[in-house]
Amino acid sequence: MTIEVWPLCPQVGIVESLEWFTDTITCRSAESRQALRLVPRQTFTYKHKLTADLLGRLTRFVRTYPLAQLYLPVWTETSQIVDGVAEAAESLTIPPLIDKTTFTAGRKLLLWESESSYEVCEIQSTGGHTMNLAAPVSRAFTNPCVMPLEVAEFMQPPEVERLASDNASMATARFNIIDAVDLSGRAPAALPVHDGHPLILTPTESDGSVGEQITVEFEELDSDTGLRYRIPSQSFSRRQTTLSWTKQTREAAWNLRLWLFALQGANVPFWLPTWNRDFALAADITANTTEFEILDIGYRTAYPNASHIIFNLKDGNVRFTKATSCETGLPGRERLHLDGGIGPAIAAASVQRAGWLNLMKLASDRVELKHGYAGTVKMSSDVVEVPE
User: Fold this and answer.
1) Could you say which DSSP state residue 141 is in?
2) Which of 80, 117, 244, 292 could staple 113 via S-S, CB 3.0–4.6 A?
3) pLDDT single digits (tens) 1-33
4) What is residue 370's three-state secondary structure?
5) What residues have CB less than 8 Å from 66, skipping those under 6 apart?
6) How far apart are alpha carbons 174 and 44 in whole angstroms?
């Protein structure tokens, strides 16, 4: 069966979604999660600005192959071969970061110069900046783009909006990827690890405000004739907030993708600071001590779930530890006992911010990535606290 290529070049602003499937069981004091889809479902939304000729070509394509599988160029991973490609070339040399792409042996790639000038090639092997092809290129290309091809299908028929000019239209096409590349075996750049889970140290980025709330699940008994009663259904509260990042380089965007694969949607938790000044040291912390004092904040009643601590120091360093218990210290103070020594001393005056770490997960198995100019990627996803 011949699979046709979707040859149209999209506008900047490609939207990609990755969706895992996590089975979550929550009881009064704990939560269990199990990943049921290790390779996410992947979709792309492309927007095309079309001349009358290209609109006619789109119409013919959809009428001819309405339900058929097609080859979808992954324009988010495109590179340009500025030196061109010779006829009968058996390998391609592409810019660095080939290891930050889904070019994979046995899969297809596309050499593309225009909507009417392109060629599908099979990748035999990759190494360094070189991809060896299973068969020679049939023709020469002057300055082509090269990108992976994925087998896809239409999620729904493309939507066309005719513009005021009779010679221009906007089309929106949405695609399901049939067999997405599994990146779960590729490790993201190492993150600090605390108590067995990765620690996120990059604050959320936002052009405006970021919503945050603390919630408690409860059941309400209402007889409709008198008072209402609320009974907690869980013994823990949950912090909910939003992570928003814009990755400015292709390498950073690739690492974000690998991190999402490592999380498997809402399955794998991670530590996230509150980014607050949750407490203040009452005195310097001596080296290797297993306890220190903070100014009284009512720790034992106000923060029953808060036991993991992060210190952001003024010199840019970060320290984190775990508190196991609390007792009353000197007047106006509380004494925290630690799980192991603190390590090097921490002067109270050197602390920029001292706060809690919350164990969090993605609130949804679906993550949306918005691709911009020059390989930039923006992600915004709600996250929610989970019990330890």
Assistant:
1) B
2) 117
3) 689 999 999 999 999 999 999 998 888 778 889
4) strand
5) 154, 157
6) 6
